[in-house]
Every structure is written in structure tokens, then in C-alpha cells.
Amino acid sequence: MATVDDGTLALAKEAQDLLFRSARTANAFTGEPVTDDQVRAIYDLVKWGPTAMNNQPMRLVLVRSPEARERLVAHMTDNNKAKTAAAPLTAIVAADSGFHEHFPTTFPHKPDAREAFEDHPGRPQIARFNASIQLGYLILGIRAAGLAAGPMAGYDADGVAREFLNDGEQAVAVVNIGRPDPAGTFPRLPRLDYDQVVTTV
Amino acid sequence: MATVDDGTLALAKEAQDLLFRSARTANAFTGEPVTDDQVRAIYDLVKWGPTAMNNQPMRLVLVRSPEARERLVAHMTDNNKAKTAAAPLTAIVAADSGFHEHFPTTFPHKPDAREAFEDHPGRPQIARFNASIQLGYLILGIRAAGLAAGPMAGYDADGVAREFLNDGEQAVAVVNIGRPDPAGTFPRLPRLDYDQVVTTV
Asked: Which pTM does this prediction carry?
């Protein structure tokens, strides 16, 4: 697993470590709360990540009340229930198929963009694709705040949508957020080698 | 557009700017080449970003030869042809539905994982979802190298797959990479406000 770390990157070593090399998916957290100010700072960073036509379909539902957490846990798969019940904060990451409603603001130089997408059958898929890219930004943004993310794909998407989302929104992931408890960090798993991933033509 | 930038984040201001705040999608580039060492350094950073079951489905095809570039440009939509023809480097980002073949290496603590996914009908969708998250990491990784990314969704996905990808792989995006020419950077578009994106329950 040879790595190149000889100054080829412009990003400072500390930032590389914070976001990628030392950061780890967390399955347990300390009791320290995650504040709205922290979430606001994370969003105010990751919102700048690019999306297609600046469509920004990602939506976040912060699950804070005990009652809401209980409703969410009921829709998580068994292996995700305990850690979701215990996390300082859990965010439902959703994709809004109604992203085109914002085009007059978000893509103002093309005044007919909203209308052009009104009957576009691909909106749910476009929303999901771009919200997934934004999920990548979000995971790194959580780490940028000095916190750890625990993204989960194991949940009943229909149940989560029915309980928590608006019409036209679909669940993309559920992410636990907090200060990591080292006891809940699994051993680092191997990554594919460059030559397994990258080809040149 | 109030922002929180008061030290709530652990990530250094310079890194925030490099990855998110100052970085921009590029539509034109200087003639400076993008080397294999740079791509290797980018991959060796972004490979650490998490994926579901560590499945790492993202594959990259670096389009370097004039002949391959010509074949790719033919499959780009008209608005993407000229900039793809001129970019120092273009990467086809693909999702490999055969990610489970690597589970003996990438998810070794669950020895039956490969077999369990052999007949799983959701593999193409799982691959696409996780490769899309990895595309988010990749765009930031390109910026971490001091370069700019120009991700594009406008291309004939079937044509690109037929020309450049292996069986079981699907195109997720085509990304131009290089040192940005300021003339090819459009005015910054507005982002949605926190309250348009985040709700609390």
C-alpha cells in the first residue's frame, strides 16, 4: 500500500489527516452534544460543493427529540438500532425531487430552467445522484468540525420517508454525528490499490 | 447569506477555502499538464473516504491519448464537447457493480460477503450510490491537489460505457481536471439558506 505523500498535494497535512487519513467512521460516541451552531457551520461549508446546475437537492432532518428518535430507530435495521438510539445527533439525509422549484434563485441566468424540469421524469434520479455527491461533502464537513460521522444505509427508506420527509423527498442515508468514542471504531479496512481503480487510455 | 466562520470548525481556514469557499468549477484550463503522480496523490487521499461495507465501487478511466479523447468527445453533449476536447486531463468516473468480488480483501471479517452479494439484484444501484459519494470525495481531492474539477453529467452514458468501461461498470460522471483558467469560471451561484435545507424534529 505505497502512498504518495511528498508535497504533491496543496492541502496541508493536518487537513488531510482530519478529513481522510485519521478520520474514521464512528459506531459509538461520547455524551458530548452536537449543537445547532456546529451543524450550521458544517452546512455553511459544504453548501459550496458543486452540484449539477447548482441544484443542491440535499435536505437534512436533524432528529433531536426523544420521541422523534424513537420513531426513527423503529425504521433502522437491527444492527443500526442501538447506535442510532445512543448517538448525540442523527441526521436523515434526503434528496428533494423538487429542486427545480429553486432554479429562479439557484440558476438565475436560465430563466426557463424551472419550467423545463417541471415534467422531467428524471428528477428523482437527478436528485438522488446529486444528493449522494453532497453526502460525500457532508461526511467530510462533519469531520471538518472535528466530529465523526457514522453513515448508515440500513433502514426502511419508505418508512423513514413516510415519518419524516415531505412529498417528493427520498431518504439517501441516515448519519449519526458526534464526538467519537474510540471503543466504537473498528480496525481500518484495506483500500483498493491505485492500479485496481485507475486505468489510462 | 449569513455564514458562521468563527472557529466553530476544526479545519483550518486555508483548507476550507481551498476545498470549498474559494474553489470553483472550471470550464477552461491553462495548458499545464496533470501528471500521473498528481492523480496518484489524489487517489491516495480520497480512497480513505468511507463507503458502505467498504465497497469502494468508484473506478477511474483517465483519458490521455488524442485518439481516446476524440472518442470520448463524440459522446459528450454539445455544450461539453469543446471544454472536454481542451482539458489537460479528463477522467471518466464509473461505478463497478462487481465490487463484491473484492470483499475477501476489503471486508475480510465477513467471509461470506462476496457470496451473499453474488445474486443480489441491487448491486448496480449500490455501486452507483457509493461511487456518487466517492465522486464527492474525488472533487474535493482534486481541489486538495491545487487543481480544479469540471464535473459533467451531459454525455451519452451507454456510449461511454460501450467505448471505455468493463462489463458491470456504469458511467457516473465525466470530470475535466486541470489548472483553472479564470476566464472559464462563471460567477458564483447562490446557495440555499440553512433554513431551506435543514429542519429539526
From this structure: 0.96
